[in-house]
Write a structure and sequence with these properties.
One of its GO terms (cellular component) is nucleus. The chain is an alpha/beta fold. 40% of the residues lie in helices and 18% in strands. The protein is built from 25 helices and 21 strands.
Length: 712
C-alpha cells in the first residue's frame, strides 16, 4: 500500500540526544499546542498539531470631531491590540529523530487537556508504545487511505499552486497549475510499496478502483538485489546517472530503426532489460537502476492512463514515497503519461504530498471544530517551502530526510470564495509575470525587494515609537526576510509560482511574525489627514468643468492617485525626500494619451448611455489615491444613479487603505459632501471587505460579504 518502507540505519543517522531544538524554529508555539496527529512511514515521521498564536493587530478608532474645531487633530487614533490566531503546524523528520523529538515535545508541552493523538501510516503500530509512554497520550489509529484523501482535498482547496507538472531541464523545473474551483473528481495514484489508484468524487466519497503490486517496493527490492544498494535515495541517485539504453532493448535494436507503420520510434523501449539476456558483459549499477526505474514508471504510467480513460478523468495526481519530490521519478512518470495519452493528460504532482496522511489524520481528530468551514492560508514565514530537486546533490543533502521540513497554515477569520463575476475562475491568472520562469525578471525584482528593505525596517520601527524593543524585532525581521529572498533566488519554486505578489506576501508574513502588523500606519494616518483638507476644493474644481472635461479629469485623477503607492521604491523615495509632493504634481507627470492600455474612448461612449446598475470598486492606496482620486470618481457615478460598492483590504498591507480606515474616511467625507452623505444613508454606497491582506488582488479569494453584495 502507501506506507513508506525505507529501513533506517540508526547508527549513522541517529540524533545526538543532547541536541537542542529551538521551539521558535521547529516546534513553534508548542506551549499552546493541542489536537496532535502523527503519520509514521518506514523512514519519515510527519507530526501535526493545532496551536493558538498571540499576535499584534493594528486598530483604528475615530476621534469625536463634533465637540469643537478639530481641523488640526488626527482623523483617528491607532492602537496595537493582541489577538488570537489559529495555526496548524506540520513537521516532517527522519524516524531516527523520533525519540528525541518526542522528548522535546514532552518537555515543552504546557497544554494538558489533550488526551489523544490521531495516528496513521504503516509505522504507527511500531511506535505506538513509545508515543504513549513519552507523551502520555492515547494513540488512536485512523484509516490510512481516508487520511490520505482528506489531506489531498485540504491542500488542493486551500493552497494556491499546490499542483505542478515537472519539466526536466526547464529554467524552472516546476510548472504550477491553477486549481479548479471544483476540485472533484480526480484520480490519485498513490505509489508506496505497491500502487493504489483511488477515484475521488467528493469530500467523503472515494473508491479504490485499482492498483498493482509493482510499485516503489518493487523498485527498491529489485534495485537492492541488482546493485547491492540498500538506501532508496542512493538507488535513485544511481538511476539519475545511468543510461538505460545500455540495458534496455530498443525498437531500433530489433528493426534497425523506427517501426513506422505502428508509429513506434527507434528510441522507444521494446524490452526492459532486453540486452542483458544476450550481451556478454557486466552492466553498471547506474545503468541497471535507470532501466529498472523506467520499467516500473512506464508500467505505473500506463496503468494510470488506462484508469483515467476508463473513468473519463483528466486530473491525475501522483503521490507516495516513490515520488517524494525526486526529479528522476517525476520525470519518468511524466514521460510515461505523456507517451500513453499523447499529451492529453498531464502527470500532476503536489508540493505537500508528504503531508497528506498527517493532515488527514489531524482533520479526523478536529471534526468537531469543522475546520473545512474556514479558509486557510500558508504562512510563508514559518514554512520550509519545496526544496531543490537537483539530482547533482548528494541524496542525503537533497532528500527531505536528514532535515526538518515545516508547513504552517493560518486560519483566516473569513471565508474566501471566487468572485462570481469571473467568467472562468479556472483559467484566471491574477499575476502578470511568473518570475520562476523568467530569470532576468526574477533577479530584477529580488534586487528591488532587497534594496527596499532598509526603508521597510525604518517604517516598521517608526510605526511603534513607544516600544523600545521594536528596533531589535525589526532587525530580526530583516534577517528572516533576507534569508527568504536568498532561498527564493536559488529555489524560486519554493512556495509555488514566484510572483511579485508572493514576494510581497512573504514580506507581510515576516513582518507579522515579528509583531509589525501595520508598518505604514503612521504614514497612512498622515496622508489621510492631509488629503481630506483638499477634498472639497478638488470637488469644486471638477464641478466647474464641462461634462466631458470632467470625465477626463476624473480618470486622470484615478491614475495620478494610484502613483501614491509606497510599495514602489521609486515612489517611496520621492515621497520621503519631498513630503510636499502632491496630487497636482502627480497629474502633471502623467503620460499623455494614448496610454499603454487606453480604452478611455470606449468608457466615455458608455457614459453617454444609461447608468450602470452597480459598480464594484476595489480600492488601493490611502491618502490622495482614495480621497482625491477614488471618491470624486465614485461621486460622479452616484450622481448618474449607479450604486457603488467599495471593497477594501480586510487587513493591512503596505499603505493600502483597510476596511476599518475606509469606514472612518467615508464618515468624514459624508459630513463634507451631501452626495456622499445621501448615498450612504440610502445604501447606494456600501463598504465591504475584500478579504485580502495582500497588496495584490486575487479575485479567486474574495470575502463572501463582497460577493453577496454584487449578486443580483
Amino acid at each position: 500500500m502507501a506506507a513508506e518502507s525505507e529501513r533506517v540505519d540508526r547508527s549513522s543517522h541517529s540524533m545526538d540526544k543532547s541536541i537542542t531544538l529551538p521551539p521558535n524554529e521547529i516546534f513553534r508555539n508548542l506551549e499552546n499546542a493541542k489536537r496532535f496527529a502523527i503519520d509514521i512511514g518506514g523512514s519519515l515521521t510527519k507530526l501535526a498539531y493545532y496551536s493558538t498564536v498571540q499576535h499584534k493587530v493594528a486598530k483604528v478608532r475615530s476621534f469625536d470631531h463634533t465637540a469643537k474645531d478639530t481641523e488640526d487633530d488626527p482623523l483617528y487614533e491607532i492602537s496595537m491590540q493582541e489577538e488570537i490566531l489559529a495555526r496548524l503546524h506540520f513537521i516532517k523528520f527522519e524516524n531516527a529523530y523520533i525519540e528525541t523529538c518526542l522528548d522535546f515535545i514532552k518537555d515543552h508541552l504546557v497544554n494538558t487537556d489533550t488526551k489523544v493523538i490521531k495516528a496513521t501510516g504503516g509505522g504507527a503500530h511500531k511506535f505506538k508504545d513509545l508515543i504513549e509512554k513519552k507523551l502520555k497520550l492515547r494513540v488512536d489509529k485512523e484509516d490510512e487511505m481516508t487520511c490520505l484523501i482528506k489531506g489531498c482535498n485540504f491542500v488542493l482547496r486551500n493552497i494556491p499552486h499546490e499542483a505542478f507538472v515537472y519539466v526536466k531541464h526547464a529554467d524552472s523545473e516546476f510548472r504550477f497549475q491553477n486549481t479548479h474551483p471544483d476540485i472533484f473528481p480526480y484520480l490519485l495514484i498513490n505509489i508506496g510499496s505497491g500502487v493504489s489508484i483511488i477515484k475521488v468524487e467528493s469530500e467523503d466519497t472515494f473508491e479504490r478502483v485499482g492498483g498493482s503490486s509493482i510499485g516503489g517496493g518493487t523498485f527498491w527490492g529489485l534495485g537492492a538485489l541488482l546493485t547491492k544498494t540498500k538506501r532508496f535515495d542512493e538507488l535513485l541517485q544511481l538511476a539519475s546517472k545511468g543510461q538505460h539504453t545500455s540495458v534496455d532493448m530498443l525498437v531500433k535494436d530489433i528493426y534497425g530503426g523506427s517501426y513506422v507503420s505502428l508509429g513506434l520510434t527507434g528510441d522507444l523501449i521494446a524490452s526492459s532489460f532486453g540486452k542483458s539476456a544476450t550481451a556478454d558483459k557486466e552492466f553498471s549499477k547506474e545503468d541497471m537502476a535507470k532501466s529498472l526505474l523506467h520499467m516500473i514508471s512506464n508500467d505505473i504510467g500506463q496503468l494510470a492512463c488506462l484508469y483515467a480513460r476508463l473513468h473519463n478523468l483528466t486530473r491525475v495526481y501522483f503521490g507516495g514515497f516513490f515520488i517524494r519530490g525526486h526529479p528522476v521519478t517525476m520525470h519518468t512518470i511524466t514521460y510515461s503519461i505523456n507517451f500513453f495519452t499523447k499529451g492529453e493528460v498531464q502527470a500532476l504532482f503536489l508540493r505537500h504530498e508528504g503531508y497528506l496522511g498527517t493532515i488527514g489524520a489531524f482533520l479526523k481528530g478536529a471534526e468537531e471544530d469543522n475546520p473545512n468551514q474556514y479558509s486557510w492560508g500558508e504562512n510563508y514565514a514559518g514554512s520550509s517551502g519545496l526544496m531543490s530537486t537537483s539530482p547533482d546533490l548528494n541524496p542525503m543533502q537533497r532528500a527531505r530526510s536528514g532535515t526538518f521540513d515545516m508547513l504552517e497554515m493560518d486560519r483566516l477569520e473569513r471565508q474566501l470564495v471566487n468572485l462570481p463575476l469571473l467568467q472562468d475562475p479556472s483559467s484566471y491568472i491574477p499575476d502578470t509575470v511568473d518570475l520562476s520562469e523568467d530569470a532576468l525578471a526574477r533577479e530584477y525584482w529580488l534586487y528591488c525587494f532587497e534594496e527596499a528593505l532598509d526603508g521597510v525596517v525604518k517604517r516598521a520601527v517608526a510605526s511603534q515609537p513607544d516600544l523600545p524593543e521594536a528596533a531589535e524585532r525589526a532587525e530580526k525581521f530583516r534577517h528572516k526576510y533576507l534569508h527568504k529572498l536568498q532561498t527564493l533566488r536559488h529555489q524560486p519554486f519554493a512556495y509555488g509560482s514566484l510572483t511579485v505578489r508572493s514576494l510581497l506576501d512573504t514580506r507581510e508574513h515576516c513582518l507579522n511574525e515579528f509583531n509589525f502588523p501595520d508598518p505604514y500606519s503612521k504614514i497612512k494616518q498622515r496622508e489621510n489627514d492631509m488629503a481630506l483638507k483638499y477634498f472639497q476644493k478638488a470637488v469644486k474644481s471638477l464641478e466647474e468643468l464641462s461634462w466631458e472635461q470632467r470625465q477626463f479629469a476624473l480618470v486622470r485623477g484615478l491614475l495620478a492617485g494610484n502613483v501614491f503607492d509606497w510599495g514602489a521604491k521609486a515612489v517611496s523615495d520621492v515621497l520621503e525626500s519631498d513630503p510636499e509632493f502632491g496630487f497636482e504634481q502627480a497629474k502633471r507627470q502623467l503620460e499623455e494619451r494614448p496610454w499603454l492600455i487606453d480604452n478611455y474612448d470606449q468608457w466615455l461612449e458608455r457614459l453617454n448611455g444609461p447608468p450602470h446598475k452597480c459598480a464594484l470598486f476595489f480600492v488601493d492606496n490611502s491618502g490622495i489615491d482614495i480621497i482625491l482620486g477614488v471618491f470624486p470618481f465614485v461621486r460622479e457615478l452616484l450622481c448618474r444613479g449607479t450604486e457603488v460598492v467599495l471593497a477594501s483590504n480586510s487587513s493591512p498591507a503596505l499603505n493600502d487603505v483597510t476596511n476599518n480606515e475606509l469606514q472612518i474616511l467615508t464618515e468624514r467625507i459624508a459630513a463634507m459632501d451631501p452626495v456622499i452623505q445621501s448615498a450612504v444613508k440610502e445604501d447606494r454606497l456600501t463598504l465591504v471587505q475584500s478579504g485580502s491582506s495582500s497588496p495584490c488582488l486575487d479575485l479567486r479569494n474574495v470575502h463572501q460579504s463582497c460577493c453577496r453584495r454584487i449578486e443580483f
